[in-house]
C-alpha cells in the first residue's frame, strides 16, 4: 500500500496536535538516542530534535516516499531517517526514548512488539505511542459496511481490519505495567472543525481509506468514493462553521522501572 506524503500533510495542524500531547508527557531530560517509528514525512520527528538538541534522533518508516520526503528537507546532523519495517526493528542499546505516533494501528499484533521492546529497553527508558481509537466511529463503520455490501464484497473482502487494530487504553495500561513500566494511558476525543466540501472524505483519503483505494482500480475507487461521500455527508453534516469531525485517540507514555 503506497503512502502519499502530500496527501497526508493536509490537516497537518490537526494531525500534529496529538503528537505534541503525547510527547509532552515524556519527562526525559538528556536522552542519548531517540527513535520515531512510523515517522511519516518527518516534520514531527524534527520537533524531537528541537526538544532534545543533544540526542541522536532517527525516524523510521516503511514507505520509501515518506522517507524521501523526510530526507529532502534540510535537517540538523543529529537527525537521520531510514526505510524499515517496525515489525522487524529492534531497539538499539543506547535508546532512551521510543516514540510512535499514529502508526502501530497498521501492525497486527503490535502488542507483542510492545512486550518485546519492553524487555529490550534499559531501566529509565521511555516508550510513548498514540493510536487512533475511532474504529467504531461512523467514518469507519460506513466504510466497512460499504466494503461488505454485495457491490464491493468480492473486491474488498479482508481489506479493512477492525476488531484487532488497536487495544483499549486499559488493556495497554495493563500490558505496560506487567511488562515492567510505570505507565500512563489516556484517551482524548478531538472535535475537528473541517472546512470545504466532503472534508471527512478528504481526511480519510490520507489514512483509513488507503487500503480500499489501493485494492481497487482507479474507476472503481472513484465509484466507491462517490457512494461513501454521500453516506459521510449524512453522518457528518456541514454546519454554519464547518463540519465537526470527532476523532478519538489513545495515548500511552511509560517509563521502564
Ligand atoms: C498515519 S502516518 C503517521 C506519520 C507520523 N508518525 C505522524 O504522526 O505524522 C502512519 C505512518 O506509519 C507508516 N507505517 C505503517 N506501517 C508501518 C510499518 N510496518 N513499518 C514502518 N512504518 C509503517 C506509514 O508508512 C506512515 O508513514
Automatic annotation (TrEMBL):
Gene name as annotated: tam
Species in which this protein is naturally found: Crystallibacter crystallopoietes
GO biological process, one term: methylation
CDD domains assigned to the protein according to its UniProt record, in alphabetical order: AdoMet_MTases (cd02440)
Purpose of the protein: Catalyzes the S-adenosylmethionine monomethyl esterification of trans-aconitate.
InterPro entries: Methyltransf_25 (IPR041698), SAM-dependent_MTases_sf (IPR029063), Trans-aconitate_MeTrfase (IPR023506), Trans_acon_MeTrfase_C (IPR023149)
Entry annotated with the keyword Transferase: yes
Methyltransferase domain boundaries: 34-122
Catalysed reaction, written as an equation: trans-aconitate + S-adenosyl-L-methionine = (E)-3-(methoxycarbonyl)pent-2-enedioate + S-adenosyl-L-homocysteine
Major enzyme class: transferase
Pfam families given in the database record: Methyltransf_25 (PF13649)
Protein name as it appears in the record: Trans-aconitate 2-methyltransferase
Cellular component annotations (GO), alphabetically ordered: cytoplasm
GO molecular function annotations of the record: trans-aconitate 2-methyltransferase activity
Taxonomic superkingdom: Bacteria
Keyword tags: Cytoplasm, Methyltransferase, S-adenosyl-L-methionine, Transferase
Family according to the record: Belongs to the methyltransferase superfamily. Tam family.
Compartments where found: Cytoplasm
Gene3D superfamilies given in the database record: S-adenosyl-L-methionine-dependent methyltransferases (1.10.150.290), Vaccinia Virus protein VP39 (3.40.50.150)
E.C. no: 2.1.1.144
Amino acid at each position: 500500500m503506497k503512502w502519499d506524503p502530500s496527501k497526508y500533510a493536509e490537516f497537518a495542524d490537526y494531525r500534529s496536535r496529538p503528537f505534541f500531547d503525547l510527547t509532552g508527557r515524556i519527562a526525559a531530560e538528556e536522552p542519548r538516542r531517540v527513535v520515531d517509528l512510523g515517522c511519516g514525512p518527518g516534520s514531527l520527528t524534527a520537533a524531537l530534535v528541537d526538544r532534545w538538541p543533544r540526542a541522536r534522533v532517527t525516524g523510521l518508516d516503511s514507505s520509501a516516499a515518506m522517507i524521501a520526503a523526510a530526507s529532502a528537507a534540510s535537517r540538523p546532523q543529529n537527525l537521520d531517517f531510514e526505510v524499515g519495517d517496525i515489525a522487524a526493528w529492534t531497539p538499539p542499546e543506547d535508546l532512551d526514548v521510543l516514540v510512535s505516533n499514529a502508526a502501530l494501528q497498521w501492525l497486527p499484533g503490535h502488542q507483542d512488539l510492545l512486550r518485546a521492546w519492553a524487555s529490550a529497553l534499559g531501566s529509565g527508558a521511555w516508550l510513548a505511542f498514540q493510536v487512533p481509537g475511532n474504529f467504531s466511529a461512523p467514518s469507519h463503520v460506513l466504510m466497512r459496511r460499504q466494503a461488505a455490501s454485495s457491490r464491493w464484497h468480492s473486491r474488498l473482502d479482508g481489506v479493512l481490519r477492525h476488531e484487532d487494530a488497536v487495544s483499549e487504553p486499559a488493556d495497554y495500561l495493563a500490558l505496560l505495567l506487567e511488562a515492567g513500566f510505570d505507565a500512563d494511558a489516556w484517551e482524548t476525543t478531538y472535535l475537528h472543525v473541517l472546512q470545504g466540501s466532503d472534508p471527512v472524505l478528504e481526511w480519510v483519503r490520507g489514512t483509513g481509506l488507503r487500503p480500499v483505494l489501493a485494492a481497487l482500480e482507479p474507476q472503481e475507487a472513484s465509484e466507491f468514493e462517490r457512494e461513501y461521500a454521500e453516506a459521510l455527508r449524512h453522518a457528518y453534516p456541514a454546519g454554519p462553521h464547518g463540519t465537526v469531525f470527532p476523532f478519538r485517540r489513545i495515548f500511552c507514555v511509560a517509563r521502564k522501572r
